[in-house]
Amino acid sequence: xxxxxxxxxxxxxxxxxxxxxxxxxxxxxxxxxxxxxxxxxxxxxxxxxxxxxxxxxxxxxxxxxxxxxxxxxxxxxxxxxxxxxxxxxxxxxxxxxxxxxxxxxxxxxxxxxxxxxxxxxxxxxxxxxxxxxxxxxxxxxxxxxxxxxxxxxxxxxxxxxxxxxxxxxxxxxxxxxxxxxxxxxxxxxxxxxxxxxxxxxxxxxxxxxxxxxxxxxxxxxxxxxxxxxxxxxxxxxxxxxxxxxxxxxxxxxxxxxxxxxxxxxxxxxxxxxxxxxxxxxxxxxxxxxxxxxxxxxxxxxxxxxxxxxxxxxxxxxxxxxxxxxxxxxxxxxxxxxxxxxxxxxxxxxxxxxxxxxxxxxxxxxxxxxxxxxxxxxxxxxxxxxxxxxxxxxxxxxxxxxxxxxxxxxxxxxxxxxxxxxxxxxxxxxxxxxxxxxxxxxxxxxxxxxxxxxxxxxxxxxxxxxxxxxxxxxxxxxxxxxxxxxxxxxxxxxxxxxxxxxxxxxxxxxxxxxxxxxxxx
Length: 520
Hints:
Elements: H1 2-29, H2 34-62, E1 66-67, H3 74-87, E2 93-97, E3 104-107, E4 115-119, H4 120-125, H5 128-143, H6 146-168, H7 177-215, H8 218-230, E5 231-232, E6 248-249, E7 260-261, H9 267-282, H10 284-291, H11 298-306, H12 329-355, H13 359-382, E8 388-389, H14 392-396, E9 407-418, E10 429-432, E11 437-441, H15 447-456, E12 465-474, E13 478-487, E14 490-493, H16 496-519
């Protein structure tokens, strides 16, 4: 992995060069003993690195009910032993989370004290070769010392942010030079955060490569990614495992929204997978979301993995050869406009109020904010009608969908696990129909209601057939925002939609009242 070392080293050198320039500027311009603060930040990061695996151990045992003494299938244990012997590393601690949603991740200090955690759903929904490919990916993170590299990299934005806070809040800055350096430090802090995200995505590709070269089976990793990353169900998966059973995972679970698909190599499966890839390949939101993600888009990883197929005597798992029927840029810019219009309205109106300080114009300004926010909110809610019966496969094929634009849908399937697999505080679900699995966003108006539901009610829905009405979104992970659901013959609602719509109407009424007050 010389290329991985080179890429990582050059990135770290670049990050620390930026930091050194800022520190030099601080020393030349400011008479501030910042070395103590920077030293404290370094010490805190080192302590965090040293104790974080043990804190994570406690967290996943207490809140995810992970078992490190659980038995794993013999084929998987033998595979891990082979990789450990090959890489001269200690056998990792393997934990199992008893949840039907598929997931896997690793953490630790180095390859010799790594922990690999997998869920029951991973072993149930994937076949043996796919499970080994996923675990091979996680072992790749350990052997590449990804935990150590990412900790060292994260020190740069941490120190830059500390410099920004210190210099912009300094009482000794008489000529404003310290504030200028502080602003520069903040800009570099943002840039460095995106560089680190890029480095994380790059190391994901190398973990995929490690898995491919260890298993000598790129197509198994590709099909596993399709199942875990997209959530489709394939038709000819004849090697199902018979097992009963924000870390560096197999995919980006920043949102903890996982999906699954069962697949084989027939033409129908290829068509279905390409259909699911369209959003990531064509919708501009996919690129924007990836910039802020620790993991590359699933479609990008599938294409990269397929390049190894010939080396191991396999046909490429997927070749995305669909032609884009139209440009989606116009929809994208409209959605960006809608997304940030409230902020624009507030900024413009507040500016107008300060520039035009008489009472009537103040009333008009405040009224303008209320009117535009209420109309915008009602506009966003008004199109959510006509729930169409859909499947996971149908929804994944939608291209004109995002965190702003939704598709009304009705899905029926079995609840197999929590949205954040195993987490006792997760109120969300994973639902499985005949075509795949998808994340359900359960979100009542009050946070405390969600947590009470998660702790005391959510497990009642496991393994039950549920009919869900809601709105399909993708940002970037596909999910359904629940409006109402039917289980055991009873229909229950999530009241966030009705409450927010009521608030928008109230804003509209308040605008009318303020307008009348201004006229009088």
